[in-house]
TrEMBL record:
Taxonomy of the source species: Bacteria, Pseudomonadati, Pseudomonadota, Betaproteobacteria, Burkholderiales
Gene, per the UniProt record: aroE
Listed NCBIfam families: aroE, PRK00258.1-2
Domain SDH C-terminal: start-end pairs: 242-271
GO MF: shikimate 3-dehydrogenase (NADP+) activity
Residue ranges constituting the Shikimate dehydrogenase substrate binding N-terminal domain according to the UniProt record: 7-90
Annotated positions binding NADP(+): 129-133, 218, 242
CDD domains per UniProt: NAD_bind_Shikimate_DH
Keyword Metal-binding: no
Keyword NADP: yes
List of catalytic residues: 68 (proton acceptor)
Pfam family, one: Shikimate_DH
Protein name as catalogued: Shikimate dehydrogenase (NADP(+))
Length: 276
């Protein structure tokens, strides 16, 4: 029997996950059916939708905004990554067991270090934003042993909270506001704010990009976002958006569910929107 999977979010029409998992299934010869579910936004709506999917025999879900915290709460078991992120982007069902994981951070690191071939070890890394995506990236980033990891956020308390989590895991993370970035330069700068989704830019000083820096926009499919434009205008040659992160986190979930890791190159090529 064909195993059923889906992505749940709200809105969900824009999701590329069915296309991505369909291509992975084709390439690996896996017999799966992957759909999309618009989760109801009211109280209990997420749990009801997941209950129904499980009752129909669903094997696993990807979770996108705004349900990553609900998925974390729904699970009966959570990976350490999900625990530390406080959020889940994938679940698998096995009878009464619901196991949650979070592949966003590992997907991002894989895209940067393998696909883009930009090492993080020994480099100065700046993360803009302290929401769910930054949280998920925290430990995978620390595992790469950067020389420095700085998290800047408008609400500095949220950045401090991530710095505390990092310290509790034995890593060194500095938290600051945007004004504190003046005069500092970084080798890798990640825009993990949601500003680009509204065609806005976090108030980052143009001088934060070191010569030969990588500027990475976590949002995808938006072309040259205001953040990437600033990077380019500052002379940065290496810019990327989050399409590779999307493809890599999906590949990690696919591996987790099916035991085979699909190659991501074709999916990245298919989904890439030129950065102009
Ligand atoms: P959250 O809503 O959890 O966090 C939003 C963050 O953005 C907060 O730190 C907030 O700061 C900051 N922010 C919002 N607007 C601005 C602004 N105008 N200026 C400065 N800071 C701002 O979002 P997520 O962490 O879930 O998502 C962040 C980004 O990552 C999105 O673009 C999303 O599309 C992308 N993403 C990409 C994925 C991929 O696979 N490529 C996967 C997951 C996310 P404050 O706390 O001060 O309000």
């Amino acid at each position: 029997m064909t195993d059923r999977y889906a992505v749940i979010g709200n809105p969900i029409a824009q999701s590329k996950s069915p296309l991505i998992h369909g291509l992975y299934a084709q390439a690996t010869g896996q017999d799966i059916d992957y759909g999309k579910i618009e989760g109801p936004l009211g109280p209990g709506g997420f749990a009801q939708a997941v209950d129904a999917f499980r009752a129909e025999g669903g094997r696993g879900l990807n979770i996108t905004a705004p349900f990553k915290l609900d998925a974390f709460a729904y699970a009966t078991e959570r990976s350490q990554r999900a625990e530390l992120a406080g959020a889940a982007n994938a679940m698998t069902f096995d009878g009464e067991r619901v196991v949650a994981d979070n592949f966003d951070g590992v997907g991002l690191v894989r895209d940067v270090t393998r696909n883009l071939a930009v090492p993080m070890t020994g480099r100065r890394v700046l993360v803009l934003g302290a929401g769910g995506a930054a949280r998920g990236a925290l430990l995978p980033f620390l595992a790469e042993r950067p020389a420095e990891l700085v998290i800047a956020n408008r609400d500095v308390d949220k950045a401090r909270e991530l710095a505390r989590i990092g310290a509790a895991e034995g890593g060194s993370v500095a938290a600051c506001g945007y004004a504190d970035l003046a005069g500092q330069r970084f080798d890798l700068v990640f825009n993990a704010t949601s500003a680009s989704l509204r065609a806005e830019r976090p108030p980052v000083p143009a001088g934060v990009f070191a010569a030969s820096a990588l500027a990475y926009e976590l949002a995808y499919g938006k072309g040259l976002t205001p953040f990437l434009r600033l990077a380019r205008e500052s002379g940065v040659e290496r810019i990327a958006d989050g399409v590779g992160m999307l493809a890599e986190q999906a590949a990690e979930a696919f591996l987790w569910w099916r035991g085979v890791r699909p190659d991501t190159a074709d999916v990245i090529r298919t989904l890439t929107v030129p950065l102009v």
